[in-house]
From TrEMBL:
Gene3D superfamilies named in the record: Hotdog Thioesterase
PANTHER family the record matches: BETA-METHYLMALYL-COA DEHYDRATASE, MONOAMINE OXIDASE-RELATED
Name listed for the protein in its UniProt record: MaoC family dehydratase
Organism: Ectorhizobium quercum
Upper lineage: Bacteria, Pseudomonadati, Pseudomonadota, Alphaproteobacteria, Hyphomicrobiales
Domain MaoC-like: start-end pairs: 21-113
Domain of life: Bacteria
Length: 159
């Protein structure tokens, strides 16, 4: 069952998908920041240490991108995902520093069929990402749309 394609029906309330682990290296933190968020605390170790973050820290957007990759590896990549209508809440709780290892869980909060699109359903998730010390670094709530099993929606499987 582990390699089975996950459809809407598989995302039952309370189901938990493990995420990670993923190590955040200095090189990827600087590369991501250089491209997308070149604030000094994300690109320079000395500036990071002098900031309230206490060291070279990943951009929050990088942390969320890493969480997305962990979600893809855990369940999205073997599902009927059709994309997301958006993020309802995103909180960066602690800095993610170079060398931190992230892991966590994605928990199904609710799921419901879409009345406007037969054969599709929307699933609401809670992501909780922690560092290697078990400290919460990122929390988010969001939805993903999935095709139903054997539904004729013309929807292609993700991945």
């Amino acid at each position: 069952m582990e390699n089975a394609i996950l459809a809407f029906e598989d995302f039952t309330e309370g189901r938990v998908f493990p995420l990670g682990p993923r190590r955040m290296t200095r090189e990827e933190i600087v590369a991501f920041a250089g491209e997308f968020d070149p604030q000094p605390m994300h690109t320079d170790e000395e500036a990071g240490r002098a900031s309230l973050l206490g060291g070279l820290a990943a951009s929050g957007w990088h942390t969320n991108a890493a969480a997305m990759r962990m979600m893809f590896d855990s369940y999205v990549g073997r599902s009927t995902s059709q994309g997301s209508p958006g993020i309802d809440e995103l909180r960066w709780k602690r800095p993610v520093l170079a060398g931190d290892t992230l892991s966590g869980r994605s928990t199904v909060l609710t799921s419901r069929p879409l009345k406007s699109r037969p054969g599709l359903g929307v699933v609401r998730f809670l992501n909780e990402i922690e560092n290697q010390r078990g400290e919460l670094v990122c929390r988010s709530e969001f939805s993903i749309i999935f095709a139903m099993r054997d539904a004729d929606t013309g929807a292609a499987r993700c991945g």
